[in-house]
């Protein structure tokens, strides 16, 4: 009886969330049972491009660490809130948001890789370049090496002189 209600609850999860949640649980269970190690899952560009371990493009999104409090919270946040199926507009809107959030995560990871990881690899180049118009608008101007600040702008303020010793 409890199995049937759990099964029905599982089948009510939208397909994208259901597939992702299932993949996360199975991946974490495989690591917990020591069928695979986290070292077989993590994102490593060298292993992906030179040794063709393509699965690393996906598996690094599926493992949340060992089963514990953190894993439980990740699963709770993946589980979508129930909504009334009679309201098709709301259902479609939530599905659209759900799929968009996964795209956002993917785009963010691709940007991080292209901006921070790949250029620092041996032979890596910076593929993404900031458009010059944005650089002109938002960058701070270079400091002039010949600039001589006013005395009040210098560290330590004014040269006040020797002063007088207290108590003497």
UniProtKB/TrEMBL annotation:
Its main location: endoplasmic reticulum. Residues 158-168 have a biased composition (Gly residues). Residues 143-168 are annotated as: Disordered. It is a multi-pass membrane protein. It is found in: Endoplasmic reticulum membrane. The keyword Nucleotide-binding does not apply. GO terms for cellular component: endoplasmic reticulum membrane. The chain crosses the membrane at residues 20-41, 61-81. The keyword Membrane applies. GO terms for biological process: cellular response to stress; proteasomal protein catabolic process. Keywords: Endoplasmic reticulum, Membrane, Transmembrane, Transmembrane helix. This is Derlin. Belongs to the derlin family. InterPro entries: DER1, Rhomboid-like_sf. Functional component of endoplasmic reticulum-associated degradation (ERAD) for misfolded lumenal proteins. May act by forming a channel that allows the retrotranslocation of misfolded proteins into the cytosol where they are ubiquitinated and degraded by the proteasome.
């Amino acid at each position: 009886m409890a199995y049937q209600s759990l099964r029905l609850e599982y089948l009510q999860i939208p397909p994208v969330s259901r597939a992702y949640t299932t993949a996360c649980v199975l991946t974490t269970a495989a690591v917990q049972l020591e069928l695979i190690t986290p070292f077989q899952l993590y994102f490593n560009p060298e292993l992906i491009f030179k040794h063709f371990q393509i699965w690393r493009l996906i598996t690094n999104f599926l493992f949340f660490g060992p089963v514990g409090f953190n894993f439980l919270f990740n699963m709770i946040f993946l589980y979508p809130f129930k909504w009334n199926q009679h309201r098709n507009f709301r259902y479609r809107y939530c599905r659209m948001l759900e799929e968009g959030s996964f795209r956002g995560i993917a785009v963010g990871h691709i940007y991080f890789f292209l901006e921070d990881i790949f250029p620092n690899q041996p032979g890596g180049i910076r593929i993404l370049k900031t458009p010059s118009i944005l650089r002109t608008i938002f960058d701070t101007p270079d400091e002039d090496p010949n600039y001589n600040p006013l005395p009040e702008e210098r560290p330590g303020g004014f040269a006040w002189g020797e002063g007088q010793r207290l108590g003497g």
